[in-house]
Each structure stands twice: as structure tokens, then as C-alpha cells.
Amino acid sequence: VITESDLREILGELAGAAPSTCSFASSPRTRVSMRHSLRRGSRRVRAEFRRRPARASIVAVVTAGLLGTGAVAAYSAIYQRPVTDTTAVRCFASIDIHGDYVSYSSVDNPGDTPDMTDPIGSCAHLWRIGMLPFSGSHPSVTRHNADDPVPPLTECVIDTGVAGVFPNLASCSAIDLPSPH
Amino acid sequence: MVEDGVAVPVSFEDFVVDAQGRLLRFATVLCGDPHRAEDLVSSVLGRCFVRWERIGGMDSPHAYARRMVVNEFVSSTRRRSWKDQPLTDATPLPSHPDHAVSVSEREALRARLAGLPQRQRAAVVLRYFEDLPDQAIAEILDCRTATVRSLIHRGLAALRVEFDDPGPAHSTPPAVHPQRSAL
């Protein structure tokens, strides 16, 4: 009579005939299912890669925005300063901070008051009346009606906090001066 | 794999290394043919690979794969009538001359085992090879525990009766197969 323990033993013997390994995907059905799986996987990976540029663009735009804001803030801190001395405007004759200039001041010129809120306009006035380029003498009264050519003017801030206006200057940073706020 | 009560996902490669041998032994006992067992397990591993994201996070991927082997065996048997192919055609078993059960009896038992309906065979193998309780077998076979007990009882009965029937020297144990005893 076969007992349950005999059955266990015989089943164990059956297990002894089992192969130690199986060649993976040996059956056509397995290969087909795996192929489908790999295709699905590759489609998913492709889809993820397609989505990535969008995410990367967003991240790049946000990062660029933050960097840009930071750069602007840094630029403002370093290359911009307020004009603290509004008693005069220094109108330069050339792009040379050590060169000739006319200090256009309400104190020095009581009869010819510059517009301190518009240094470029004030210096343009000096160019127009022939006081610049600097000739070493104040313009005569009759020259007040002159209409000399005015070069492109750029306002910067010099060390004393006075507005300095230079002709034909593309940017204050070119001569290491901050721009006014 | 479970660590501190939390299922830790394992890689498919680790799972194959760890579970392949056990699955192959189980499948060989289940279907009685090492070659078919290899096909069975490779097919199951293939399907595990396809769904590994889900299976790898389970408490016991091996139990799930074993269940897949059983289901594959039952459905494949239905499709291909494996049970019609006698297990004696499979790789011969190592002989155990000192054992109480004779070689002819073993061969006869193997043949009767091969003749069992697939669900009975699966229930018997899960009980006597995997040592699973009724509840676990019921979950694998997707049936009630009472059905499991019935499957095992009828499986055992068929195995023993078939064994004892042919020879006049053997007496049919009435407790094992009451229907036959009633005859």
C-alpha cells in the first residue's frame, strides 16, 4: 500500500529529474510575449524621452529666468548707482574721464540754470551753443542762439556721485563707470 | 521579498537566480516531464518579466510565479492534453532499490499520477510536494478549501486504488476509495 510518505518521497524523486536551469525564452510563446514587452518598454522609454525635452525646457526657462533676474540684480548692484549730487552736471568733451569737461552747475551759472533732472538735455544744450567741445572759454551770449551739432550723449555716474555726460559713448561700463539708476 | 514587514522590490535577475530551480522542480513534479517543465517555467518567467514592475513589489514573487506555473499547467493541459502523454516517456528517475516501495510500484504510481485530472494533480503536488495548507492551495487553484480537500481526497483515492486494483495480491483499501469498495 502506498502511503502519503511514499507519495512525498516519489514526488521528491520526480523533482530530482528537474533541469537545473531553463533556457530563458525558449518557447515561441515566451519569445513573443517578451518581444511585445520589450516593444512596450521601448515605446514607454521613447515617450519619456519625448516628454523630457518639455520638462527640460521648462526647467531651463525657469533657471534662465532666475539667473537672469540674479544677473540683473548683480548688474544693478555693481554697474548702477544713483546720482547723489544734483547740484551740477559734468559734461565731458570726449570719452575720457580725465579729459576736459564743463561743470554745468546752477551755482556757477545762475543765469543759465541747467535742468538737473535731465543731465543729457542740459549737456546737449552746452553742445548746441558751442561750449563743447571745450574751447577754454565760456560761450558768448550771442552764441546762445547757436545750433551746433550735438553728438549722441550718455549719462554715467562719476565717483563723486555727480552725473557725467559723455559724447559718443556706447555704454558707461566701457569706461568702468556705473549708469545712473 | 519582505523586510521589516515591508515588501522590498527585487530585481528580475535576482528573482530568476533565486526561484528558477525551485520553480523547475515544482513544475517537473507537476507535469511529470522535465522538458515540458522547462517550457512551462520559461513561459512563466517570460510573463513575469513582462509584468515585473508589479510582481517584483509583491510580498512573495515566488508564490505568485508558482501560482502562474499551476495556472499555466492547467490551461496548457487543457489546450495540449498533456495528461494524455504518459510520464513514463519522460526522463527516467533514479532508482532507489532499498526503498520499501518497489520500482514497479513507483512506475505505476507515476503513471497513475500522470493520469490524474490536472486540478487533482495540482492539488496533490501542492499538498505533498510543496506542503501547502488547504487555504494556500485554495488560493492558488481559485477554489474553496472544501474543494481542495475533495480534490486531494479523490486524487489520493485514485492513486491508491489504481495501484491496488490490477494485482490480486493487493487488496483495495475501502477507506481510500469508497465508491470502488462499494462495488
Notable characteristics:
heterodimer; A: 181 residues; alpha/beta; 4-stranded mixed beta sheet; two-stranded parallel ribbon; 3 helices; 41% helix; 15% strand; rod-shaped; B: 183 residues; mainly alpha; two-stranded antiparallel sheet; 9 helices; 64% helix; disordered C terminus
How does this structure look, described?
The complex is a heterodimer of chains A (181) and B (183). Chain A has 181 residues and is an alpha/beta fold. Chain A is 41% helix and 15% strand. Chain A is built from three helices and six strands. The termini of chain A are far apart. Chain B has 183 residues and is an all-alpha fold. Chain B is built from nine helices and two strands; from the N terminus they run E-E-H-H-H-H-H-H-H-H-H. A two-stranded antiparallel ribbon of chain B has the order 1-2. In chain B, helix 1 (12-31) packs antiparallel against helix 2, helix 1 (12-31) packs across helix 6 and helix 6 (118-128) crosses helix 8. The longest helix of chain B is centred in the N-terminal third of the chain and has 20 residues, at 12-31. Chain B is globular. The chains are: A alpha/beta (181), B mainly alpha (183). The interface between A and B is large, with 32 and 47 residues.
